[in-house]
Amino acid sequence: MDENTAFTWLLMVPMISSAVIYLTGRIYSRSLKNGKRTNPARWLALMSLLVTGVFLYFVITYVFSTGQTHYQNFGDVWFRFDGISMMLSLLVLVLGILVTIYSFAYMGKESGEEKFYALLVMMIGAINGLGCALDLFNLWVWFEVMTISSIVLVAFYKDQAASLEAGVKYLIQSATGSVMVVIGIALIFLETGTLNIEMLRMSISAPSPFLIVGGALLVIGFGVKIAMVPLHTWLPDAHSQAPSGISAMLSGVVIEVGLIALLRALGGIALSDGRWGYLLIGFGVLNMIVGNLLALRQKEVKRMLAYSSLSHVGYMLLGFGVLMSLNGLLAGVGAIFHLMTHGLMKSLAFLAAGVFLYNFHISKGSHKALVLDDLNGASKKYPFTAFAFSVALLSLSGLPPLAGFMSKWQLLAGVVQTQNTIMIIVVIFAGLMSVLSLGYYAPLVNRMYRKEPADIVMEGKSVSIWMYIPMALLTLAVVVLGFVPSILYWLTGPAGYSLFIFFGQ
Amino acid sequence: MNISTSMIVLIAVIGLFGVGLYCLLITRNLIRLLVGLQIMVKGAMLVLVFVGQSQGQPSLGQSMALTVIVADTIVAVVGLALAVQVKRNVGTLDIADISKLKR
């Protein structure tokens, strides 16, 4: 297949099918008032994601067969399919397909199922496009599409006060961040006269006030989405109140997408001796400590996992900051690898927590939160789910031989290779933070395996096969990546390099 | 375009953004929060049109402003839909009353 056609359809399929899914599902559920049959929206969603995956396969084989970055334009708007886009598209499609399968059972009894799948596919499509955008304003448009669809998904349980509150917080803070990004882009355009990220890089020779203010606005605006620490207050609410599949997507991909968008945008304006990287390292350290300390005192499982996302974003910020300011290519590659493994293991943790939440509360019509005590002795009745959850938690805390250990190891080893004294102190600090994180992951494993089963566990329903499939695949991925991390090097290497050429000398 | 005009436009942008942000910070009514957001976005539209003009690409600036209008309208629609649901399910629009989730 022609690579231009494949790339066009890669961007178009999710956007078109989103509308088709909604209309088909809506017409179907209208025409059949009290029917118990399944809504076709779910199969359409799965099919459209698989078709997108086929087009992605064609584009990736083309890029590898020629060994060159693929450029394409629609009018004046340029797209660039490089290592970062490849990594991001692949990660979001794999997680999206697994979450869609998982939601067959999780969302099966909700009314308005078609809205869920339509928005999920739209969000995945927007992330696909964001990874390839080479134009600052186009980047913002994809970012905004992703934000709006995720806001509606967070507030999906629209009769629950708690999820409405999470949605309102998320909407107000994200919208404020988006406005700041627009003003930042406008200031950069005022200074340079172009919006193309590669052209920007050529037209800048020295820092100027407009560029610094514009860059700061970009950091703040995208920082809301990344949940850099003073701007993180929406995250635990949104991630804990969303349906569990969406929590997995939000925590595993969406906050990292903010990070990628920030790196793309800063890639245009950062000079090779730029100081932006030090800012990211500072935020990274702050994220690690605040995320870990707040996670320690949580009583609800999903809130705890949400706070632990903060500390993991801190590791990625550290790696990318070192890539930007200290020429640490290996740290950047490690950060990309951590981004991927974090996506896999955090999704697994949220999906497994979602199984417990669904069988204890949601399937009985209650919307109570899953607290730590609910998990007591869960392995007696749910052996496989408890095992998957334990693998995810131990991997998140960075115990060998799981994927989380390998990615943290590569990231921190890459940072150490810069031979910078302050960076080595930061690495020791990050290692200690990783130990501290065991303080809230390990008790959960202990609870599931060693305590007497709580009443709520024994009354729980049995798990649907649709929930087992994605969990089994993710567990396998986390364990295999821990033993053989080299199977992802074909993806992380080019991704790190395509970031490096923006920031390196 | 001379210096004085651009200064006036930039001051207007900062003013609009500041008014919107102040509105976001002090008000507790959900509808007013959305109005505050709208005021901030108006600042962003103004700066896009101005930047396009001063770079000699007015059509690019205006088309970007139009895109921002569309995106902003969708945000407003989603926000108002949330406000309707809040009013229906909680019975108030005061954001202090819906802040039940703890830190």
Explained architecture:
The complex is a heterodimer of chains A (505) and B (103). Chain A is mostly helical and 505 residues long. Chain A is built from 20 helices and 2 strands. Chain A has a two-stranded antiparallel sheet. In chain A, helix 1 packs antiparallel against helix 4 and helix 10 runs antiparallel to helix 13 (329-360). Chain B has 103 residues and is an all-alpha fold. Chain B has a single domain (3-90), classed as Helix Hairpins, CATH 1.10.287.3510. Chain B has helices at residues 3-26, 30-54, 58-90. The N and C termini of chain B lie far apart (50 Å). In chain B, 32% of the residues are buried. The mean pLDDT of chain B is 89. Chains A and B meet through helix 5, helix 6 and helix 9 of A and helix 1, helix 2 and helix 3 of B.
Q: Report the portion of residues of chain A in β strands.
A: under 5%
Supply Rg of chain A.
22 Å
- Overall average pLDDT of chain A: 89
Low-confidence stretches of chain A: none
**Most strands sheet of chain A:** 2 strands, antiparallel
> CATH class of chain B, anyone?
Mainly Alpha
Q: Given the structure, what is the number of helices of chain B? A: 3
Shape descriptor of chain B: elongated
CATH topology of chain B: Helix Hairpins
Number of DSSP E strands of chain A = 2
The largest interface is: A-B, 36 and 38 residues
How would you classify the quaternary structure? Answer: heterodimer
Distance between the amino and carboxyl termini of chain A: 37 Å
Q: N-to-C terminal Cα separation of chain B, in Å? A: 50 Å
